Amino acid sequence: MFLTISTTGTPERPATDLGFLLHKHPDKAQTFSTSHGTAHVFYPEASSERCTAALLLEVDPVTLVRRGKGKGRGGAPDAALAQYVNDRPYAASSLLSVAMTTVFKSALNGACRAMPERAAEPLPLRIEVPALPARGGAVLVHKLFAPLGWTRVEAVAVPLDEQFPEWGDSRYVRLVLEGELRLADALRQLYVLLPVLDDAKHYWVAPDEVDKLLKAGEGWLAGHPEQKLITSRYLSRRWGLTRQAMERLELVRLAESDDLEVESVDNAVDETTDTEERPVPLAGRRRAAIIEALTAAGAHRVLDLGCGQGQLVQELLKDMRFTEIVGVDVSMRALTVAARRLKLDRMGERQAERVALRQGALTYTDKRLKGYDAAVLSEVIEHLDLPRLPALEYAVFGSARPRTVLVTTPNVEYNVRWETLPAGHVRHGDHRFEWTREEFRDWAGQVAARHGYAVEFVPVGPDDPEVGPPTQMAVFTMAAADGRAPDETDTRTTDTRNTRDRRTPQPAQNPQSTRSPEPAPETPATTTTPKEAKAA
Questions:
Q1: Sheet harboring 123-133: ordered strands across?
Q2: Tell me, what's the pLDDT at 67?
Q3: pLDDT band at 83 (very low <50, low <70, confident <90, very high)
Q4: Are strands 50-59 and 2-8 parallel, antiparallel or unpaired?
Q5: pLDDT computed for residue 266 by the predictor
Q6: 493, β-bridge pairs
Q7: Burial class (CB in 10 A: 0-12, 13-18, 19+), 165
Q8: What residues pair up with 404 in beta bridges, in sequence order?
Q9: What DSSP element (H or E) covers 3?
Q10: Peptide bond between residue 511 and the one before it cis (omega within 30 degrees of 0)
């Protein structure tokens, strides 16, 4: 197997800096032992104008057979070939990828103490692989490499026999890549895509391969148009691992779309404690109030938006009046906990048909959330930054448009009754705000007016005569059967505690613009079925 990496330079920034980035001196030929043979690194040319580093991998066929049993895990991808007669010593494959991690480990990580600034900036690169197996041909090669910033992607098919052109082309191509990329990015792309194009691996694919894929694919795989194919082939079509990788990549994409860290998006589960509120009876009362409101609305198909660890979904499943229950959350960790709580992997078939868990961001529209009787946002809105609320508002009330929407949120006025809560502190470290009753009614009234809903307010928990209940719930009901928004003066806002509050409040402190937000882009949701939960 053979691979060359070339770059150009000037006297001020010589091309031989490539030697520093690869941690291999241009004046030396070096040899390294690998699990299946010997790797050689040398420089066919090294000047200030042009420098080329070559990696030559000599595969020991006997070692390959002994370690890989000749096929399947270790050898030829074609079972018809004898174990000693295959293309593994000659065609670029996962063997070359593993050799790259041995020889160019520091370069793959983008580390260079001598020239950190050169390692961090793009270089004019030319990469050649003379014999690359490509299941999918030159078309697939272009699909995989073209979106990654290469200005030239050339994949020339190698004929089966040059003396007999009528035999046609083989499945091998001569690959040439040219463009300005960071060296670490180029090496990581090769590390992933060489075995993907070969569609075979010389070793058993274990669960830790998911971490390897995500590390090598950082910065480019989450947004790649062929992400599904790359992930499936890299993980040798192991469905459970592929699903796990796709879910984690979706988290990365969601985080990047909002310019956030993945950890800040996937934070619905506390690593050390259950995040269900204390005291527990309040959480139970909140779920009971939600179920009572859903029953009164005659809802059968219900969305639990921001379902967290699945406590409400679990309660809804106990009531056979709810025929379809869908839990949605951006956090895969929370959905995994919910799947375990619900025992999806051991659930009976009839019960399993009633429930589904999906990954999705509530600030993006999702066409699969349309057509439901009711949606619940229980203790969700306070976890969003105020500028993001219009996007959530449109996604739920403007796009999904269930007939009934229930929204619960803490009443900040009641916080003075929590003896263990310091003054001025919110109830949860991730709460971006907590509203007074008046602020919540102002927001709910404006939402109802904009989207054609009537709204009433229900206290949850002990209703203190001075500071109100610990939790406040708004029950939105679509005001017109045809879904058309009535005049703002027709929108009702009521409080079940006091008839004098039956009015549309004027905002004392407007948390957001009264202008309806622009439609947010649709984002696909990931569904967890009982069988998938067992694999997870």
A1: 30-34, 37-46, 50-59, 2-8, 123-133, 169-181, 152-159
A2: 63
A3: low
A4: antiparallel
A5: 65
A6: 455
A7: exposed
A8: 374, 477
A9: strand 2-8
A10: no
pLDDT classification of 260: cutoffs 50, 70, 90: low
Question: What is the C-alpha separation between 384 and 362, in angstroms, rounded?
Answer: 10
User: Residue 450 carries which DSSP code?
Assistant: H
DSSP-assigned beta bridge partners for residue 408: 378, 473
Q: Which amino acid is at 204?
A: W
Q: Tokens 């961090």 label which residue?
A: 120
Rg from Cα positions in the chain? 30
pLDDT at 509: 38
Q: Strand pairing partners for 477?
A: 404, 454
| Structure token digits, residue 50 | 């042009």
What does pTM read for this prediction?
A: 0.56
Chain mean position to CA 525: 10
Which tokens go with 531? 């069988």
First to last CA, the chain: 37
Q: SS3 letters for 148-208?
A: HCCCEEEEEEEECCCCCHHHCEEEEEEEEEEEEECHHHHHHHHHHHHHHHHCCCCCCCCCH
pLDDT in tens, 130-143: 999 999 999 999 99
pLDDT score for 248: 83
Residue-wise pLDDT for 320-365, tens only, equals 999 999 999 999 999 999 999 999 888 888 889 999 999 999 999 9
Query: Can you tell me which residue has the tokens 């990580």?
Result: 109
What distance in Å separates the CA atoms of residue 253 and residue 251, rounded to the nearest whole number?
Answer: 5
The 10 Å Cβ neighbour count of residue 86 is 20
CA 257 – CA 251 distance, rounded (Å): 10
Q: Tell me the C-alpha to C-alpha distance, in Å, between residue 215 and each of 120, 185, 240, 435.
A: 17, 11, 19, 41
pLDDT higher than 90, residue 521:
no
What is the identity of the amino acid at 98? V
Question: 414: Cβ–Cβ under 8 A, 6 or more apart, which residues?
Answer: 464, 467, 468, 469, 470
Per the document, the length of the chain is 536
The vertex-429 CA angle with 259 and 309, nearest 5°, equals: 85
Helix residue ranges per DSSP H, 418-475: 437-451
Task: Give the number of other Cβ atoms within 10 Å of residue 145's Cβ.
Answer: 22
Q: Are 341 and 274 in contact (CB under 8 A)?
A: no
Cross-strand pairs, 54: 4, 42
pLDDT at 480 over 50: yes
117 residue type, one letter: E
